[in-house]
């Protein structure tokens, strides 16, 4: 009986505490939930309008449903020769109406970012095709060698969400084969600065966060490049995975941090770009990624 009475007193005490907590919650004003979100980095949220501290994009009040916008890519000529002038034409269509999209939002000071990578991962283009009145983006270049190239398009249709779309093009005559990439984490001398890479963990694990710390020397004269303190493209050795990202932490100093999740246990080629004194520096590293055991 004593044990039963004691249990009853405890229950009455818990009820009193619960009622008091409810009353207190009713009297304390609730903080409004964040209403504005970065369309590119959805973890960046704010209760007031502004810009994303990570990429500089304008925060928006509502994010539409994430729908892929189909992209078609045409070459002129259709079967270019190595070193020959070739025109790439990109056309984006609305996923609901299939009509061509003609209005786009700025992403890092450009309407369209384009990356082209050769199958041996030795050749890289990061450029910005021009928008024509009919909504087509065009870019002229010269592809130096035979074989496959992967093209990554980064664009933001008005009324939609930021898109990353990969395509494949060919210069006829090459042999399709996966590139052999040896680990390469040595510091690199770029155009007018040296770039050093340290990762945490030292051996990245597929599917888990990896912190990539880049140290640049000299840091004096470091400038934002296309609206960010740096740009990074990561590509797996088989060119299935292609990731375009920007610094997570950077302040114009010598240390720039990127956060990355490598999808698979493969070697990844990294190209990182920083601008110093008006010169764009590109440094290339090869990072082996292990499987989780």
Key terms:
293 residues; mainly beta; Immunoglobulin-like; 3 domains; four-stranded antiparallel beta sheet; 1 helix; 19 strands; 9% helix
Structure description:
- There is one protein chain.
- The protein has 3 domains: 35-64, no CATH class; 71-171, Immunoglobulin-like; 188-288, SOR catalytic domain (Immunoglobulin-like, Sandwich), CATH 2.60.40.
- 24% of the residues are buried.
- With 293 residues, it is mostly beta strands.
- The protein has 1 helix and 19 strands.
| CATH topology type of the largest domain | Immunoglobulin-like
CATH C-level class of the largest domain is Mainly Beta
| Count of runs of 4 or more consecutive helical residues | 1
CATH architecture annotation name of the largest domain: Sandwich
What number is the mean pLDDT?
A: 87
Beta-strand segment tally: 19
Q: Please describe the biggest sheet, giving its number of strands, its sense, and whether it closes into a barrel.
A: 5 strands, antiparallel
Our measurement of the CA-to-CA distance between the termini, rounded to an integer number of angstroms, reads: 55 Å
How many whole angstroms does the radius of gyration measure? 25 Å
Domain count, please report it: 3
**Mind telling me the CATH superfamily name of the largest domain?**
Macroglobulin (MG2) domain
Given helix and strand content, the structural type is mainly beta
Shape: globular
Helix content: under 10%
Weakly predicted, low-confidence segments:
1-33
Helix/strand order, N-terminal first: HEEEEEEEEEEEEEEEEEEE
